[in-house]
Specification:
Blueprint lengths: L6 H11 L9 E3 L9 H16 L4 E5 L9 H13 L7 E3 L4 H13 L3 E4 L3 H7 L17 H13 L8 E4 L14 E5 L13 E3 L1 H11 L4 E5 L6 H10 L9 E5 L3 E2 L6 H9 L14 H7 L3 H11 L7 E2 L1 H15 L2 E2 L1 E2 L2 E6 L8 E6 L9 E6 L2 E5 L3 E2 L9 E2 L3 E4 L4 E9 L5 E8 L19 E2 L2 E2 L4 E8 L23 E8 L11 E4 L3 E8 L5 E7 L5 H4 L3
Parallel strand pairs: 1-2, 2-3, 8-9, 10-11, 12-27, 14-22, 18-19, 20-23, 25-29
Antiparallel strand pairs: 4-5, 5-6, 6-7, 13-26, 14-17, 15-16, 17-24, 20-21, 21-22, 25-26, 27-28, 28-29
Helix pairs in contact: 2-11, 7-8, 11-12
Length: 555
């Protein structure tokens, strides 16, 4: 875990020591509403909102809604829901579209200053003229248009007089700059599409680089924090702020941190959309997706996600964080809050031949040993129960300590049993396991037999009272730890990332509601996804009881 202040906190403390007033601190989280937030955004959210708490400063939520071709209100609503679920509150809810008039007026000022011009070439030609990192670009033939012509054309663009792609507004900077982003970048383009907030009021829309710094300036953001891919953009960010004129020494400062890259995971919105479009997942909130909504549906907690990003720390260099760290933080929290319950997902019937016929006994088990106030739950027990098929072998090899013929195990919260024989079906599959039990070995009793040691304890459910359940078992969505490095990443989608199973659970589960998390003893952590029309509970598996990636992921 990162100890002491991170490098961003040190930057802010240094700025305060150099004279920046505490009251002038202000941060922002600026998502684009063209998809749902993912695990990488959790890091950015935590950095900004935690800084707000550390320095007692406001944090704005500002939507970068400058591209109506990909933005929707459902994404805006989903983003707000995710941030609230993480436990954060923003000072102001802002939109880049709130500043369209200011941005347009500033753009006109740049034209008047001779710092921007209308280019009437198509995008492909403009791209070719940009040059390469080792070769200077070429000036546009329209670069020296008169200010009057530029202002007129820009006004006509705003009125909707031109088709998309017919004209763009470009900043006039330096076509030979080593930083290719400064080679006369596009500031405005024409888009004839209704905007989810401004409807059809506009048909020219600002590019991100133009809207970013100016929006920060309007909101009086002191520190504009971005991921490392925006580091080359910093010079352009500062050029635009300088170009529009004096800002009373309140110019926002852009600084960059390494994005969160997670093994077995893709966070590119474009690639996540492709997964949805090609039917690899069932939507943005599919529990296999790295989106916050998907993680929430999978059973992750806000506490575990925040613990994860804080443990991973704030770095200046890109690296890949192991998925096992995320799951460790998750299990650590779930272990504290999850009621224990027994469920059998691959059942085989076990018949206790010396148990009284027709008797139904109520046994007692802890709800959560980590929570002393959680109390006890009652567990029905009878002559016939279900156990996991994998917990029994007719002839056990060395090292198998669960139930086998002639050997004993303890049933969790119940009795010690001994397997005698099996009954098989016509396919030679075990149908029933015949056992005997020691009536004096009841868990929690004061008898000598109850304290007798056996090599294994297994879970079970009473066949008379067990409830049928459906379980969605999830694995990593990708078979390789670095799917983002593969051009055709779809080839590496795990065909077994979702396996559906039917099973049985003890009747205590009837108390559960959608969204509640539990630990299936000896199996893992699960969340109630929903309860169907037949009152059958559908569970999503959140994670196992221990890290399995180092042992199992050998592809």
């Amino acid at each position: 875990m990162q100890k002491g202040p991170n490098f961003i906190e040190k930057i802010i403390k240094d700025d305060l020591q150099k004279g920046l007033a505490q009251k002038n601190l202000c941060f922002r989280f600026p998502p684009e509403p063209n998809g749902f937030l993912h695990i990488g955004h959790v890091k950015a959210i935590c950095i900004n909102f935690d800084l707000g708490e550390t320095f007692n400063a406001p944090v704005n939520l500002r939507f970068d809604d400058t591209n109506p071709t990909s933005e929707e209100k459902k994404f805006v609503d989903g983003i707000k829901k995710d941030i609230k679920w993480l436990g954060y509150k923003w000072e102001k809810e802002c939109y880049a579209s709130d500043y369209f008039d200011d941005l347009y007026n500033w753009a006109e000022q740049l034209i008047t200053k001779g710092l921007a011009y209308i280019d009437s070439q198509d995008s492909a030609t403009i791209a070719l003229q940009k040059g390469t990192p080792t070769e200077a670009g070429k000036n546009s033939p329209y670069r020296n248009r008169s200010k009057e012509d530029n202002l007129f054309l820009f006004s006509e663009m705003k009125k909707g007089s031109f088709m998309e792609g017919e004209h763009v507004l470009r900043a006039k900077i330096d076509m030979s700059s080593p930083n290719m982003l400064l080679r006369d970048p596009v500031m405005y383009r024409i888009i004839h599409m209704s905007h989810q907030r401004t409807n059809k009021d506009w048909c020219v829309y600002p590019m991100y680089d133009w809207a970013h710094g100016q929006s920060d300036l309007i909101e009086k953001i002191s520190h504009s924090l971005c991921t490392l891919e925006f580091k080359p953009h910093r010079e352009l960010y500062e050029w635009f702020l300088y170009a529009i004129g004096p800002t009373e020494n309140k110019t926002p400062k852009q600084r960059e941190f390494a994005r969160l890259n997670l093994s077995y995971t893709i966070t590119s919105k474009r690639k996540l959309k492709r997964l949805i479009q090609e039917g690899c997942v069932d939507g943005w909130d599919d529990p296999r997706m790295p989106t916050i909504s998907g993680l929430r549906k999978r059973g992750y907690t806000p506490e575990s996600l925040k613990k994860f990003v804080r443990t991973a720390g704030v770095a200046k260099r890109e690296n890949i964080i192991e998925l096992s760290l995320l799951e460790f933080c998750l299990r650590e929290h779930l272990n504290k809050i999850s009621p224990r319950i027994m469920a059998v997902l691959n059942p085989v019937k076990l018949i206790i031949e010396n148990y009284p016929e027709g008797e139904l006994e109520e046994l007692s088990g802890e709800i959560n040993p980590e929570d002393q106030k959680s109390g006890k739950r009652m567990i029905p027990f009878s002559k016939e129960i279900y156990i996991e098929r994998d917990d029994f072998k007719e002839n056990a090899e060395k090292g198998f300590f669960r139930l086998s013929l002639g050997n004993e195990v303890r049933l969790k919260n119940a009795y010690i049993i001994k397997a005698k024989s099996v009954e098989k079906d016509q396919n030679d599959q075990i149908k029933n396991i015949i056992c005997t039990y020691d009536p004096l070995s009841k868990s929690g009793s004061d008898t000598k037999e109850s304290k007798r040691k056996v090599k294994a304890t297994i879970h079970w459910v009473c066949s008379k009272k067990a409830k049928k359940i459906i379980v969605n078992q999830y694995d990593t969505l990708f078979l390789v730890p670095d799917p983002d490095k593969h051009e055709d990443f779809i080839k590496y989608v795990n065909p077994n990332s979702l396996v559906k199973k039917n099973g049985y659970i003890e009747p205590y589960a009837s108390k559960l509601k959608a969204g509640e998390r539990v630990q299936f003893q000896r199996q893992g952590y699960f969340i109630v996804d929903k309860i169907n029309a037949d009152k059958q509970i559908i569970f999503n598996k959140t994670t196992g009881l221990r890290d399995s990636f180092k042992n199992q992921k050998k592809h």
